Structure formats: C-alpha cells, structure tokens
C-alpha cells in the first residue's frame, strides 16, 4: 500500500510539473508576442495591399477603366455618335472618370513603394505596372481634348490593353499571398504538434521511470515479506 501511495504521489507531482511547464510556455509565448509590439504603419499597409479584397478591388477598377477607355475611343473614332449636347459631354465625363481611376492607381503605386521600398524595383511586374500607369496618366492629361486624342489613339489603345497585365498581376499576387498564409499556418500547427509530442514523450518517460521505481520497491517489499514469513516458520 505504501508503494501504491508513493506512486500516486509521484504521478501527481509529474502532472503538476507538466502543468507548470505548460503555463511557463504559454507565458513565454505571450511575452514574445508583447516583445513584437503593435504593428507599424508599413506593416498595416502591407497587410492591406496584399489582402485578397484589395486585389479584387484593383482588378474591378482595372476592368472598369478599360471599359471606360474603350467607350471613349468609340466616341473619338465616331463609331458611336450621340445627338445634341451629349456628343461632347459624355466622352468628357468618361475621360475624367478614367483620369480619376488612374489617380487612384498612382496612389496605390506610391503606397507600394512606401511599403516595399527598394524591393519594389526588383519586381518586374510591379515596375511594368508602374510604368504603364504613369505613361497612361500622362497621356490622358496631355490628350485631354478629343482632337489631341485622335492623333495618339493608337498609343492609347496599346497602353490600355497592356494594362490587362494588372489583372494577371493582381491574381498572381493574391493567390501567392493566400498560399503563403496557408503555408505559414501549417508551419505553426506543425511546430505546436512537435511541442505537444515532445511534452508527452517526456511525460511518458517520467511515467516509465516512476513505474520502474515502484516495481522495484514492490519487488523488494515482497521479497522481505516472504523472508520474514520463512523465518517465522
């Protein structure tokens, strides 16, 4: 009975030790989280720019801008004609809407340069995107009159069609970002499982050592009892 009570006490001590170590581990994780501190402005902007919703918004704006440009070109080439005052007003409204969207793209490029810094200039797709947006914006401002736009209509069409690359770029970045997040989650789960496995291995090792010690003590106790009984006989 004494050996059994001793084994029970040892098991309770082992469990308390494991609980204490788990608490310490949790505390250290919290301390590590606190060490990182709050997110900076660049980190928050990076999370927003590379988010799936942001990429979808950019793609929608690109498609809408292409539709605006194509509609404007239909009016410039007089393929579609309007009557009365709408003949001048509608193309002008479309043109200024396109300039507004290009202004949003310029702000986006500025934010990307602020977030990525020098690494921005190492990404070919990002550079290509920035060049197309800047050149398109300059041409839209220069050719803001329909008479001027007629002379550069070919260049405008080519540049605007090139901007389809923004759609592909946005899709690639969005898919890549989602894959990176999934891989990061899997890594964290793997590390957590490894820690749990190590903890339970040490726990099993402690139990095995306790069982061996209890077995040895019970064997020696049984041997002494048998020896006393023989002496009594």
Automatic annotation (TrEMBL):
Keywords: Cell membrane, Coiled coil, Ion channel, Ion transport, Membrane, Transmembrane, Transmembrane helix, Transport, Voltage-gated channel
Lyase recorded as keyword: no
Domain Ion transport as annotated: residue spans: 54-169
Principal location class: membrane
Annotated GO CC locations: monoatomic ion channel complex; plasma membrane
Subcellular location: Cell membrane
Membrane topology: Multi-pass membrane protein
Protein's GO biological process: monoatomic ion transmembrane transport
SUPFAM superfamilies, per database record: Voltage-gated potassium channels
Keyword Iron-sulfur set for record: no
Origin: domain of life: Eukaryota
TM segment ranges: 54-73, 93-115
Name the UniProt record assigns to this protein: Voltage-gated hydrogen channel 1
Organism field: Batillaria attramentaria
């Amino acid at each position: 009975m004494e050996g059994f009570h001793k084994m029970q006490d040892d098991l309770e001590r082992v469990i308390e030790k494991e609980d204490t170590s788990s608490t310490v581990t949790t505390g250290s994780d919290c301390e590590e989280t606190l060490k990182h501190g709050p997110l900076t402005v660049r980190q928050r902007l990076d999370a927003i720019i590379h988010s799936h919703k942001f990429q979808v918004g950019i793609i929608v704006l690109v498609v809408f801008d292409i539709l605006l440009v194509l509609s404007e070109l239909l009016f410039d080439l007089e393929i579609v004609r309007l009557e009365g005052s709408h003949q001048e007003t509608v193309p002008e409204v479309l043109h200024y809407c396109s300039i507004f969207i290009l202004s949003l793209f310029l702000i986006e490029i500025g934010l990307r340069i602020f977030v990525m810094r020098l690494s921005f200039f190492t990404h070919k797709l990002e550079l290509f995107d920035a060049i197309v947006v800047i050149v398109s914006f300059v041409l839209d401002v220069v050719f803001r009159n329909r008479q001027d736009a007629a002379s550069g209509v070919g260049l405008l069409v080519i540049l605007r069609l090139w901007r389809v690359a923004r759609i592909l770029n946005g899709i690639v970045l969005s898919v890549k970002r989602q894959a990176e997040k999934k891989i990061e989650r899997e890594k964290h789960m793997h590390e957590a499982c490894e820690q749990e496995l190590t903890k339970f291995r040490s726990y099993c090792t402690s139990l095995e050592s306790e069982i061996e010690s209890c077995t040895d003590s019970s064997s020696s106790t049984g041997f002494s009892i048998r020896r006393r009984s023989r002496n009594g006989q």
